[in-house]
Design goal:
Elements lengths: L1 E7 L5 E6 L4 H9 L5 E13 L5 E20 L4 E8 L11 E6 L5 E5 L7 H10 L8 E7 L2 E7 L4 E8 L10 H22 L8 E5 L3 H16 L2 H4 L5 E5 L7 H5 L3 H6 L4 H18 L4 E3 L1 H9 L9 E5 L8 H18 L2 E5 L4 H7 L4 E4 L17 H8 L3
Parallel strand pairs: 8-11, 11-12, 14-15
Antiparallel strand pairs: 1-2, 2-7, 3-4, 3-7, 4-5, 5-6, 8-9, 9-10, 13-16, 14-16
Length: 401
């Protein structure tokens, strides 16, 4: 994402113009845009005109529209973002109050404006900085496979996305028909390699995980290098050091979570956001098992720990799911923004906003979406009289998936 211009006021109102350059940027846009925001972008709208004779004709024209956002629809697989709302500025072809759905596109600017009531809070501004970070790109490519099935996925700084699933029928080895199996396997490898090459940029140096039960991944790696040598594909040969063959229990995408927990993979991915978040969650879970009063989770418990000054300088850390900031209710969102600001600005503690589309974020969501590592032990945060606290469940119901 490229930042074109921005203007923020003291009360949190203001606007920002962004230029999305890659599909991942649409995920950031989805997390930045909220109901009641003003969104200005290029639109394709069908216009019907009537001639002096009474005949009508219609055409689709490009115009720039501004809408007051009412609804968002994001497709995580295709990274397509559709934003609906009422038109707020009249044009030659539209009237104020008409509904329109803007389809945000790559390589086209859009301008997002927020008012002072909710505005550009610290979380929103932090997400803009992250989205515009030049090192934010695909961290890892992965091919999770078994004979006849391969899942090509990409792990970015914010999420894990299935790019394509490949299925090729491979005859079983029966009697003297082993040749048919070998031909089928070669066809499978050829199709998988062609698919991989359509997605990756061979000029970049990124880890490429090849995972499978048995020896399928090892055989695929050998096929890749043999084909690269045979065809003189030097860019592909230069990727040899980036391939990492690992074992998985199956060739289906859910095995990726298991693969990414292995020490071998984490060592290779030590500089990626995924690895940093995984290490943080693993550290929290290890402290939780010790039960020494320095690891707490859940909205009420964490808020109490912060109030008592337990999440501050000297090792305190707040882990919070980005799903909480997609709550439709302004009051609920402000609750979490205040918590983040108090820990980071007032107490001097570390704040990590984890993506709910990574395994570490999903683990955190299972703990109520928020957890904390304390600088000193606090006991009995959960022993006070039970209060009605269903905010997180309400948030979950309000989140647009």
């Amino acid at each position: 994402m490229r930042l074109i211009k921005q203007s923020f006021e003291r009360d949190g109102s203001g606007y920002i113009t962004l230029f999305p350059e890659e599909p991942e940027d649409m995920w950031y846009a989805y997390n930045l845009i909220r109901p009641n925001d003003l969104l200005r972008a290029s639109a394709l709208r069908r216009i019907t005109t009537e001639s002096s004779t009474g005949s009508t004709s219609s055409a689709r024209i490009h115009i720039t529209l501004t809408i007051r956002v009412t609804e968002l629809d994001f497709d995580p697989q295709s990274s397509q973002l559709h934003v609906s709302g009422r038109i707020t500025e009249e044009t030659k072809y539209t009237k104020v109050g008409q509904y329109h759905t803007l389809d945000l596109e790559l390589q086209r600017n859009f301008t997002l404006e927020k008012d002072g009531e909710e505005g550009w809070d610290s979380v929103s501004r932090g997400m803009v900085r992250e989205a515009c970070d030049p090192v934010k790109s695909a961290d890892v490519w992965a091919v999770v496979m078994q004979e006849g099935v391969a899942n090509l996925a990409v792990l970015t700084g914010a999420r894990t996305v299935l790019r394509q699933r490949i299925e090729v029928s491979i005859p079983k080895k029966r009697g003297g028909r082993a040749g048919d199996h070998d031909k089928g396997l070669e066809k499978f490898f050829q199709t998988t390699l062609e698919t991989l090459l359509r997605h990756i940029d061979l000029d970049e140096s990124k880890p490429i995980l090849l995972a499978s039960p048995g020896f399928t991944a090892s055989l695929f790696q050998k096929y890749i290098l043999d084909m690269a040598a045979r065809t003189g594909n030097k860019p592909l040969l230069s990727q040899k050091a980036n391939f990492l063959v690992v074992h998985s229990s199956s060739g289906h995408l859910h095995s990726l979570n298991e693969i990414l927990q292995s020490s071998e993979v984490l060592a290779r991915l030590k500089d990626t956001q995924y690895a940093r978040e995984t290490k943080l969650m693993d550290g929290f879970m290890a402290m939780l098992r010790k039960d020494d009063g320095r690891a707490w989770y859940g909205p009420r418990e964490v808020e109490k720990a912060v109030e008592k000054g337990g999440v501050g300088r000297g090792g305190g850390a707040l882990l919070i799911s980005n799903a909480l900031f997609r709550a439709q209710d302004v009051v609920t969102r402000k609750r979490w923004v205040r918590l983040v600001d108090k820990v980071r600005d007032a107490e001097g503690g570390e704040v990590r906003v984890l993506s709910s589309e990574h395994e570490s974020g999903k683990r955190l969501d299972g703990l109520g979406g928020v957890a904390a590592i304390l600088t000193f032990p606090l006991d009995d945060l959960d022993s006070e009289e039970e209060e009605t606290d269903t905010d997180y469940n309400k948030d979950a119901n309000n989140i647009q998936i």
